[in-house]
Sequence to fold (374 residues):
Amino acid sequence: MIDCDVLIVGGGPSGSSLAWALRDSGLDVQLLDKHVFPRDKVCAGWITPEVVSTLRLNLADYAVGRTLQPFHGFRVSRLGGREVHTKDSATPVSFGIRRCEFDYYLLQRSDVTYHECVSVKQLVRDDSGYVIGKRFHTRLLVGAGGHFCPVARSLGAKPGGEETAVVAQETEFLMSPAQAAACKVDARFPELFFCEDLAGYGWVVRKGDYLNVGLGREDKHHLAEHMQSFCEFLKARGKVPYDMGRKFPGHAYLLYPHATRRVVDDHVLLIGDAAGLAYPQSGEGIRPGIESALLAAQIIRRCQGDYSSAALSRYEHRLEERLGRRSQKSVSERLPGWITAFVGSKLLSTRWFVQNIVLNRWFLHAHQPPLTVE
Ligand SMILES: Cc1cc2nc3c(=O)[nH]c(=O)nc-3n(C[C@H](O)[C@H](O)[C@H](O)COP(=O)(O)OP(=O)(O)OC[C@H]3O[C@@H](n4cnc5c(N)ncnc54)[C@H](O)[C@@H]3O)c2cc1C
Fold:
C-alpha cells in the first residue's frame, strides 16, 4: 500500500497545478490518472495571459516542439448576424494551445510522482484519511478528476442528474496542406458565434495548421443537431473544410454560479471542474481550475496536517472571495428569454460591447488581476 500525505485524483491543469504549488511543501504528494499521458482532452484550448503569469510559464520554453498560437483579437457574431472584429492588439490577448501537449507539460513540470492507468472507483474513508482501491492511503484526498470526478461523486455530486451543465462537442484536427490553404480562418483571430437563444456559442479556432471547431450550450437538448448545423454554416463560408470528419467527442462541465457541489469534507477537497468553477459567460475553466489549485495549496500548507472539514473550510471561503457567491442569477437570466435574445442580438453587433464586455470582461477577465498567493 502506498501511503502519502496528499493524493490528487486527476492530472489535468488543476491537479498538476496543485502538485506544482506543493512541490516544496515537504509533504508527500502523489497524483494518479486513469489515462496515459500525453492524453487528449475535449477543449477549445485557449488560455489567457493571466494563466501564463499565474503559472509562471516560460513561453519560449513551452513553444519548443509544441503549438503555441498567439491570438491578437476575436471575431464575434450572433450566428448568421453581423461579424464584429475586436481591436487588433499589438500584444497577444490570448494563446492557443493543444491540451494533449499543455497538460503533459504541466504534469511533467510539477515533478510529482504520478501513477497512470489508475481509474479510481472505490473510495473508503477511515479515521486518518482515505483508502483508494486497496492500493493507496492518503491523509488528504483531492478530487481533480473533472466533471465526472469520482471524489466529487463521493461528496454527493450527481453529474447528469439535477445539475445544470454545459454540454459541448468539439473536434481538433491537423488540416492537410490543401485544407489549410483553403481555410478562411485567420489564426490570429479566433471566431465566436453566439447561438440565437444565447444559451451557448460555437467557435472555430486555428492554431497553425490545427483547426479546432466546437459548440457548447448550457442546455442538454439537441446538441448534436446544433453542432451539425453549425458545421454546415461554417462549411458554406469556407471556414472549415467540406471533407472534415463527422465525429465530435462530447463533454460536460459546470459553470460556477450554477454549481452546487460540496467542495470540502473531512480529509477531502475538490478543485477545478470537479468543484464546478468555470466562468459563466465564456466557459473558460482552466484559469479558475488553476486558481483553485493555488488557493487549495495555500490552505493545505496552513493546515499543518489537520485536514478536518473545519480546517479545510477556509479553502471554500477563499474560493468564494475570489469567484463570488454561487447561484446568483444575473439580470439577463431573470429576464424572459425573448428579451434577452433581442437585446443580445443588438448588443452583439455593437463594437463597443463586443470589445469591452464580450472580449475584455467575459473572455479575458481582464478586470481581475492574476491571483497572487503568498
Ligand atoms: C468543448 C470544451 C471546450 C473548452 N474550451 C476551453 C478553453 O478554450 N479554455 C478554457 O480555459 N477552458 C475550456 N474548457 C473548460 C476546460 O476544459 C476545463 O475547465 C478544464 O479542463 C478543467 O481542468 P481540470 O484539471 O479541473 O479537469 P480535466 O482537465 O477534466 O482533468 C481531469 C483529469 O482527471 C482524470 N480522471 C477523471 N476521472 C478519473 C478517475 N476515475 N480516475 C483517475 N483519473 C480520472 C482525467 O483522465 C483527466 O486527466 C472547455 C471545455 C469543453 C468541454
